[in-house]
Amino acid sequence: MKYVIVIPDGCADEPIEALAGKTPLQAAKLPAMDALAAQGMLALANNTPAHLPAGSEVANLCLLGYDPDIYFTGRAPLEAAAQGITLGPHDWAVRCNLVTVENQVMTDFTADHISTEESTELLDALNGLLKQDCPIESKLEFVPGVSYRNLLIYRGDENTPAPFSNETRSSAPHDLTDLPITDDFPRGLGSNVLVDLMNRSVELFAGHRVNQKRIADGKRPATNVWLWGLGGAPALPTFEQNHGVKGVMITAVDLLRGIAALVGWPRIEVEGATGYLDTDYAAKGRAAISALENYDVVCVHIEAPDEASHEGRHEAKIEALEQIDTHIVGPLVEALAKHGDYRILVTPDHPTFCSTKKHTHGMVPLVIAGTGVEADSQTTYDELACDSAGKKFEKGWDLMNAFIVKT
User: For residues 52 and 405, what is the distance between their CA atoms, to the nearest angstrom?
Assistant: First the structure.
């Protein structure tokens, strides 16, 4: 049996007035996904428990079958795993965005999609400000990632208690777009360390040559770092231990790369996959088809719908969905038919509303089709049709047990 999981990140939405009261899923032309709906089973799943952040970190763990109350320690440790950074029992990882804040408003949580080279230079400068004679700061290091997505690593030991705890709270910058940030700085144990670094970065970045050039080129500057999503080392059983099948991940996002590493999946890096709206959808589709030769489960994650939502661009979200349908879902269904028995699952991880430009809690629509899946009466894939089907996975981590056939 071959399995395919397609994750159009954040594609679930609410009715939009400019779309005559339709959601982007309803407004988009999705013949391949609608064909799956006609052949298979629709349902809703809750991947974002109300007491946890409504973000991709929790939602994708749930989607892949992991109870977040047991396995989730924070977003940053997942991204650390993507970079091959091993966290010890006394270590912590903190997500570090380069952002643009103007007049205490989060203007851009990506600093105008700052380049990796520019991020690296700014973070190298910030590392130079860390006080090596300070017991806490001597154990901290900023680690560049990709573009605006970076990390701060704390290396602790049994003799030096970590400055943070599981009660330390922070706010995701992508949930603050166009909103005041005054009340959203880190809080709780160790928050003073994070806030101090955030404030010091403002002064350092203001006159830095990277920002001077960006402003001269008509780009937004990276005004400061935003620190959030911190946590200690997670410990997950592999996907194969849980379900008896070997999987592989195709994604351009460090968070999903990290989750893949922790669940024992290798990753396939696709040239032209950007994690943004300009990603090469067809290349990701071809890579997934090729991966079917060597793996039982092929998971394809596409960030583009979520990025469109964060920018409040419903037309761009529709375009991304149609590209996914044409270049990923359609070709994969055709390829799967040549492999004998198969199942395919299409589902976002969480809703992201164009109106609010941020992730939200709530059910997401999904379709499962293929061998042994009994068709219901629905013929389109969208939020309303999935709701009408009447089947719900109140605990999103139960979905994998329904999708994977036990042998």
Answer: 29
Closest CA to 102 of 224, 185, 14: 224
Task: Report the alpha-carbon distance of residue 48 to residue 148 in Å, rounded.
Answer: 25
User: What percent of the chain lies above the pLDDT cut of 90?
Assistant: 91
The whole-angstrom separation of Cα 405 and Cα 407 is 6
Q: What confidence score (pLDDT) does residue 325 get?
A: 98
Q: Which residues pair with 106 in a beta bridge?
A: 101, 177
In the numeric block, which tokens belong to residue 211?
């920002």
User: d(Cα 56, Cα 364) in Å, to the nearest integer?
Assistant: 13
Backbone φ and ψ for 25, nearest 5 degrees, come out as -60, -40
CB 105, CB 119: distance < 8 Å: no
Enumerate the β-bridge partners of residue 250.
268, 300
Backbone torsions φ then ψ of 310, nearest 5 degrees: -60, -25
CA 57 – CA 75 distance, rounded (Å): 5
pLDDT digit string, tens, across residues 221-242: 999 999 999 999 998 999 999 9
d(CA 203, CA 257): 33
Residue 43 confidence (pLDDT)? 98
Pick out the chain residues at pLDDT < 50: none
Residue with the two structure tokens 């139960």:
398
Question: Among 258, 299, 240, 261, which residue's Cα sits nearest to residue 63?
Answer: 299
Whole-structure pTM value:
0.86
Per residue in 236-281, pLDDT tens?
999 999 999 999 999 999 889 999 999 999 999 999 999 999 999 9
DSSP string, 130-167: S-TTSTTGGGEEEEEEETTEEEEEE--BTTB--S--TT
291, with CB counted inside 10 A (0-12, 13-18, 19+), is buried
- Judged by phi (left if over 0) then psi (alpha if -120 to 50, else beta), residue 170 lies in beta
